[in-house]
Amino acid sequence: MSETKEKAIKGGEFIIRDTKPENIFIPEEWNEEQKMIASMCDDFIEKEVVPHVERIDKMEEGLMQSVLDKAGELGMLGMSVPEDLGGMGVDFKTSLLATEKLGKGYSFSVAYGAHTGIGTLPLLYYGNEEQKKKYIPKLATGEWKAAYCLTEPSSGSDANSGKTKAELSDDGKTYTLNGQKMWITNGGFANFFTVFAKIGDDKNLSAFLVEADSEGISLNPEEKKMGIKGSSTRQVFFNNVKVPAENLLSERGNGFKIALNILNIGRIKLAAGVLGGAKDAITHTIKYANEREQFGRPISKYGAIRYKIAEQVIRAYVVESATYRAGQNIDDAIESYMEDGLSKAEATLKGIEEFAPECAILKVAGSECLDYVVDEAVQVYGGMGYSAEAPVERAYRDARINRIFEGTNEINRMLTVDMVLKRAMKGELDLMGPAQKVAGELMSIPDMGDLPEGTFANEHKVLKGFKKTILMVAGSAVQKLMETLAKEQEVLMNIADLSIMTYMAESVLLRVEKLISKKGEEACEHEIAIVKTYFYDTADKINKAGKDAINSFAEGDEAKMMLMGLKRFTKTDSFNPKEARQKIATRVIESNKYDF
Ligand SMILES: Cc1cc2nc3c(=O)[nH]c(=O)nc-3n(C[C@H](O)[C@H](O)[C@H](O)COP(=O)(O)OP(=O)(O)OC[C@H]3O[C@@H](n4cnc5c(N)ncnc54)[C@H](O)[C@@H]3O)c2cc1C
Questions:
Q1: Per-residue pLDDT tens over the stretch 313-341
Q2: 3: pLDDT strictly greater than 70
Q3: Alpha helices per DSSP H over 159-298
Q4: Which residue of 158, 183, 220, 238 sits with most ligand 1 atoms within 8 Å of its CB, as the best mutation to test the pocket?
Q5: Is 242 helix (H, G, I), strand (E, B) or coil?
Q6: CB under 8 Å to 138, separation ≥6 — which residues?
Q7: Element (H or E) spanning 179, and its range?
Q8: pLDDT for position 9
Q9: What pTM was computed for the model?
Q10: Ligand 1 pocket at CB < 6 A
Q11: Domain spanning 28-144: which superfamily?
Q12: Taking CA 284 as the corner, what is the angle to CA 374 and CA 42, rounded to the nearest 5 degrees?
């Protein structure tokens, strides 16, 4: 068995299986080539995007396209595209790094994400050789721009209910498309659409590659939006649009599967992108807090402000740890599937599908981290934060969409639980065995297994407790509610939150443990403070989510027993959060930037 296979962890398995720090990737391990790509993306944003954000947001004619053209010239639009199709062919986590760096480009980031992600990837991963040869090189260079047409006025979250129709001609040579799509990013200038429509009375969608200059395609004017004002968002109408039969992507009825799998990729990429935006907003916050004086001192000297800055840093650092951990897991899974003989495209799809629960977790955690960060950024700016002249005002407005697109956070929370439970039902994940063990433990002396000693002894104990909480709550909810669990959304949201927080907590702990093994404890005092503060806070939040769930479906002695277990599972050592946050804030305030 290869090294890759030995360490492979399955998607969703973090709930029942521990991971060793040496088996995760941490951002401190980027190699020289990856750092060069990152710095190229940083330079690009600094020179080609930031000076023009005002003009981009005013939708100056042709400006967004020309910025995308420049990105294309530098190879940035073809990062995930194999070299033989005109791209750079970087691995998955490197594409996440580029997405992070380009994520601080406001509306540009959305146009970039839509073009390189949902715009290009359906064809890259599901297209046949002729289709790919025809279109991918043009998309990789930016000669053509792409958009993804799934949503319709009456079908958003329920994407498979779309009404757009495709009828095959009697000679089998052309499909005729009729329907209306809504909220289409890059719609105003895209040359190439991936359009989802139903053939005849099919239950499931099919996907079609459609050239934008085809007769019968028309657009509504630009939507007037709260944020990402420079990103083109249009309604697209298809009125008897003829599409050659060979432009059916994959097979008839496979469109919904394509849409879901591409959204999985979009979700983890969204986490990387919002991380870039969050780090940038944190740096703005720190700089402003250092410059602005009130009552004779810079506001960065005040504890209330230092708390906010430390908390911004903690949340971004945690999301970063989890994003690249999952990115490496996906790369490992891709490699493993390729060893089994799958093509790169097939292996990539399967690798990402494997970690779909983590992708949904990251989408929610990333977008909510960004919203916290930009909200506090505006607060630290005070009145200036409310001024359109402040960079954080735009960041605040632009951030909000991330909780809505790529599947709303409610849908992603439900998916997180649904996907894991389905895998358990299919026997792919042994959740029930460990859940029964935890249930048995409620009536006996707790078994905490072998716990490491040292700096993180408390956090390891608590992490085991977090995982037991998920198993106790989810296991008992499944038993009690059976099929009706799917309808008990409040409980599902609680279980999703337990899973999200646990994945985040484990990821940041593993990262810092690995870092300590490389640099020693003394050099990691701030990172240790981040882990400890995150665990301290999260234990209470896990307790609350667990309590809400238990009280929603259990009562009497049964509820009492679970609540007692919960208390035990979320008990943490005493800790001084003020001191830890002060330490974190001092470091970044002295550096005058986010410097982790
Ligand atoms: C700026 C922007 C750009 C976009 N770009 C694209 C694009 O390029 N291509 C594309 O195809 N689409 C795009 N979208 C569409 C986007 O993906 C959808 O808006 C999103 O999926 C939500 O669908 P909806 O707006 O119809 O909301 P709804 O589905 O109507 O949801 C409304 C609310 O109800 C909740 N909800 C829905 N169903 C359930 C349920 N079963 N249980 C509990 N709660 C539920 C949702 O979470 C949400 O809070 C974009 C949207 C915007 C605003």
A1: 999 999 999 999 999 999 999 999 999 99
A2: no
A3: 255-291
A4: 183
A5: strand
A6: 144, 191, 192
A7: strand 174-185
A8: 86
A9: 0.97
A10: 114, 147-151, 156-157, 183-185, 225, 233, 401, 404-405, 408, 410-411, 489
A11: Acyl-CoA dehydrogenase/oxidase, N-terminal domain (1.10.540.10)
A12: 100
